[in-house]
Design brief:
Strand content: 35-45%
Structural class: alpha+beta
CATH architecture: 2-Layer Sandwich
Number of domains: 1
Strand order of the largest sheet: 2-1-5
CATH topology: Fusion Protein Consisting Of Minor Coat Protein, Glycine Rich Linker, Tola, And A His Tag, Chain: A, Domain 2
Order of helices and strands: EEHEEE
Shape: elongated
CATH class: Alpha Beta
Radius of gyration: 15 Å
């Protein structure tokens, strides 16, 4: 449960993006896990995330390997400062 005064509780919506990290640190299989309710925002964020994101890949026995099943939450805020 989200606390009433938490950062995410004040968000207008929260987009959840799922992805995998490839051995070279790029992301693949970027998809919407939970839409924010603003389809244009969601599509733009998925495209931007897929193009710009880089992660340090998991190392197994000294070799970079693909990792699957990551997710990130991206809140949509109103732009109005929160007191």
């Amino acid at each position: 449960m989200i606390e009433p005064n938490s950062f995410y509780a004040r968000a207008l919506g929260v987009l959840v993006i799922g992805f995998d990290v490839l051995a070279d640190g790029t992301v693949a299989n970027v998809h919407i896990v939970r839409p924010s309710g603003a389809p244009d925002f969601d599509d733009s964020m998925v495209a931007c995330f897929a193009r710009q994101s880089r992660y340090t890949p998991q190392i197994l026995d000294g070799v970079a390997v693909e990792s699957r099943g990551y997710a990130i939450r991206i809140p949509i805020m109103s732009g109005v400062p929160v007191p």
